[in-house]
Amino acid sequence: xxxxxxxxxxxxxxxxxxxxxxxxxxAVAVSVWTAGTATVIASALGLPLxxxxxxxxxxxxxxxxxxxxxxxxxxxxxxxxxxxxxxRRGGVFGPFDLLFTPWAMxxxxxxxxxxxxxxxxxxxxxxxxxxxxxxxxxxxxxxARILTxxxxxxxxxxxxxxxxxxxxxIGEVGVSMILGGNIARHTRNLTTAIAxxxxxxxxxxxxxxGMILMVLALGINFLLRRLQGRREAA
Length: 234
Known about the structure:
- By secondary structure, this protein is mostly helical.
- Helices cover 79% and strands 0% of the residues.
- The protein contains eleven helices and no strands.
- The chain is globular.
- 38% of the residues are buried.
C-alpha cells in the first residue's frame, strides 16, 4: 500500500514538474531567493570576521572561536524564536513590520548561516601555510595586497564555507515557518510547502517539492565536495 502511494506520488510529481506547476515554481522561487540572499549577506559579514579571528591575536579570541563552533549546531527553531522576539510587534525592530515577510526569513537565515561562514572560513585561513603572507610582507606589499594574497590561497576553503552555509539554508524549515508564516505566494518555500502538503495528504505535490529540494541540496553538496577536493589537491 505504502509502495503504491510512493510510486503514484512520484509519477504525479514528475508530471507537476514537467508542466511547471505554479505552486512548485513559487516555492522554488522563494527558497532560492531567501536562501541565496541570506548566504550572500552572511558571507559578507562572516568572512571578514573569519579573517579577523584567524589572522589577529587578541584577548577573547579563543572564546569567539569556541562560540562560533558551538553555534554551528544551533537549532533552527531557536534562531527563529530569537529573531521573532526582535521583530514581533512590540519588539526592538517591530516598527519595521518585518514579521511574516521574506525579509524576516532572510534575517533569521543570516543569523543561522553567519557562524558557518565565520567558523569554516576561520578554519580554512588558519590551516594555510604562513609563507604566502610573510613573502608578500617581505616584498613590501600593502595590507590590502597581503589580505588579497591570503584570500586567494584560501579561496577553495572560503568558497566551501559559503557553499556549506547555502546548503544549510536551502533545507531549513524552523526559521522559515516561525518567521515567514508559510503564506502562499509570499513566504511559502520548499520546506514549509512540503510540511503543509504532507499534512493535507497532497503527497504528489509534496514529493515533487521534495525532489526539487533534493536536487538543489545535491547540487550544493556536489559543489562543496569539488571545492574540498581542490583545496586538498592544492
